[in-house]
Amino acid sequence: MLLVGGYAAGQEPTDFLELQGEKVPLAINSSRIGVLSREDATFEKVREFADGRGYKIADQLPGGLYILDIGRTHERAELVQVPRTLRREGGELIAQAGIVGTAPGIENPLIITDDLIVQFRPELSGERIRDLFAENSVSIVEASIYSANQFVLRVDETSKADALQISARFQSMNDLVEFAHPDFITVVEPRELLPNDPLFGHQWHLRNTAQGMGEEDADIDASLAWDMERGAAATTIAIIDFGFEITHPDLQPNVVSGWDFVQNDNDPSGPDIASGSRHGTAVAGVAAARGNNATGVAGSCPQCSLMLLRIGASSAASTVAAAIGYAESHGAAVISNSWSYPAAPALVNALNSAATSGRAGLGSVVLLAMRNSHVDDCSSSRLPSLDSVISVGRSTNRDLIDDLAPFGTCLDLLAPTAWLSTISSGRGTLWITSTDMLGTAGYNTNDILAPCPELVSPPANALDYTRCFIGTSSSTPLTAGVAGLVLTASPGLTRLEVQHLLQDTADKIEDSVGVYSPGNGRSAPSSGPPSHGWGRLNAFEAVRVAASAAQGGRAGVDLFLRDNRLDWGNTEQPSNTQFEAPRGTIGHWESMDIKVDAPPYQTAPTAATFENFPDETPSAVSGDVNRVYVRIRNRGPEEAATATVKLHWAQFGTALPPLPADFWTQFPADSTDTSQWHPLNCAGSSGTTCTVANLAYSGSSVAMTSGDAARIVQFDFPAPAVDPALSNHFCLLAMVDSPQDRISQASTASFFVDGITPNDNNVTHRNYVNLPMMRSFVERLLVRNPFDRPIRTELRVTAPADWEVSIDSFGVGKPFELKPLEQVPVSLTIGNAFGRGVVTLSQEELEGEKTTLIGGLSLRFRPE
């Protein structure tokens, strides 16, 4: 049964919000209340207040908004009295309280207080308006000073009605009222911070909108990260380079200290026209040019401090080591090095010391640029080979590596930039925009004969900026700035924890070349050296894990279940996004974290053996009990004290059936409707939840190593009765929930499984089957409409070349219509199949020119 805003399909919902002329159904939670605390109220005070009344904090949202679990369910008239009592008794602690509603398409809960907004028609007299107030038991809270006849009203506490119901009354008075709705409270969701720096639109590496024919989102999602964190003066990024324009108006506000190790003074400028000075100026700008100051550009950490340390373009090892030691001893949180040098022992010692002893023993985050040539830069004689540093390569504005990119086993991360051949090779189309020497002394001479790569247009100070900075000299400080954001959000992280976080949250771009390992997510092609490290830097994902809940982050705990081999927990883009140019899709139904063991049983898997554990088709023999193992990971540096895991099965098909009407209101208990989604018992118990305690860090950086702390729980899956019209294949749906990392509000407001899974890393499903190789094969399965509305849809198939695949009833690539919640048995026939291969059947909804993936399944053929 499908829910619409919390109401069963076919049932007329009684509560609506009218938004832009659309009636949006609203589901009211009968056992929860929302409270908005006053600004000086602490979490401990709110918890004490709730505990004193037998309530528990179910969720904490930004801005002092709390969701309280009040225990048993309440009838509506009784429910509305609870927040009224809390307001009276809360005194100086509680600013507002109300009932809790969720609506489709609105991510966060809506707190419906006793206040409502009514806009009366302009011709209505004051006397008539006052009569309406009395008739509906409301009083004036505030009259708008901007809109005549608009009022914030409050429902009398003696009223059995609430603001939602009284709003509906006013809204029905079409001849008297223009609009009326509850003055609900919800989280204000800033999607991204777009700074007012005039050249920000050219900084595709921070925010790529496909400008200059690039690939949209081939960037680090900096503007999304800045919603949570923009850095702070207390976080210092040391730039070791060959000279700097320290009076540059986009650098000077962030410069706090520096030293010239050539001239041995505190002025790291260097000669005005030295090529090294323009290099260092551009490097510093990429990392920490002042942002949102209506000037030029923004760095990736726009409010971090800059420590500028000058070495010579030709320097002794002792000089370079001294600069590194200076950065360590003067409190640099991050040390960025956009240069290459042999691995002299003095430098190795200095780098290792900074990484282990910097920041009072937490370690400075040290970044080194890989070389700008197509060579393996990871021999022991090269500094990037050190375990104590983060080695940075490069990717383009099309999310590709260029044909001269460096490679090797020590390559940790890619970050957006370009190289001389990027444009001519077609692998990218733009270079990097950053700060430059003032006037014509830098890269930007505005020479019409040698534009760089193009003439710079206004603003008036355009000569102070360049649009042709390139190489790992740019990608390295870009990554350094993101490390600065992470450490500002969570200053107590160790150097290694920051490195893990940057690696674990990288986007897996260009898998067709990088070939990321299914076991740990690192580039591992079967032939040739690794070329992509852990993937392309993603500032938003890294900062979100580190940032506090008040900032909109995960507070160091991010549990995740993997939807496919490229998924390691990122949700800024759905998990079924394949980061190629152009973008593609990969099935979100191929979970890497659910495995089946049919009788006779194998030895139970551990974190170390799970990856290679045999994955079988569930037995359908009556009396058999299949074992299902679910692996849970935590890519945050903080331990999850407790987590709850649930597992359900449903019949194999394309789009999966909707969750039952009371699924989320009962969760983590079971729905009363188990006709399509069947809960499974945790092994060794009669309960349908498994509990995991103390889940430590277990991100991709440590996957399949001795440090992998992933946890595995076991469920019992008794052989289900087989429908003779269908094949003995099933979908398994897993969920993990923790007080420190809840299943998202967007998910719990939805019942569309194939929409939840790719967008919530707490949910995954396995909708595939492993089969022995055979020349011909017929699979019976269900094609579904998961919505309570008719849809126009079609099926698509991918299969090895020369395999013959057909589907009766609907065919392949042919549009057809399905009635609301309709499910139709079909036969998928495969012929001429030789060898190992995978057949994928996906279902898309067609709405005009728009196509939306709404489900899919995979058949994997392999030798027995």
Automatic annotation (TrEMBL):
Key word DNA damage present: no
Domain Peptidase S8/S53, residue spans: 234-510
Gene Ontology process terms (BP): protein processing
Coiled-coil segments: none
Keyword Protease among UniProt keywords: yes
SUPFAM superfamilies referenced in this protein's UniProt entry, alphabetically: Subtilisin-like
Entry's Gene Ontology cellular component terms: membrane
PROSITE patterns noted in UniProt: SUBTILASE (PS51892), SUBTILASE_HIS (PS00137), SUBTILASE_SER (PS00138)
GO molecular function: serine-type endopeptidase activity
Chain segments carrying region Disordered: 512-533
Keywords on record: Hydrolase, Protease, Serine protease
InterPro entries membership: Peptidase_S8/S53_dom, Peptidase_S8/S53_dom_sf, Peptidase_S8_His-AS, Peptidase_S8_Ser-AS, Peptidase_S8_subtilisin-rel
Source organism, top-level taxon: Bacteria
Active site as annotated: 241, 279, 473
PANTHER family for the chain: NEUROENDOCRINE CONVERTASE 1 (PTHR42884:SF14), PROPROTEIN CONVERTASE SUBTILISIN/KEXIN-RELATED (PTHR42884)
Similarity field: Belongs to the peptidase S8 family.
Name this polypeptide is given: Peptidase S8/S53 domain-containing protein
Source species of the chain: Sinorhizobium meliloti CCNWSX0020
Lineage: Bacteria, Pseudomonadati, Pseudomonadota, Alphaproteobacteria, Hyphomicrobiales
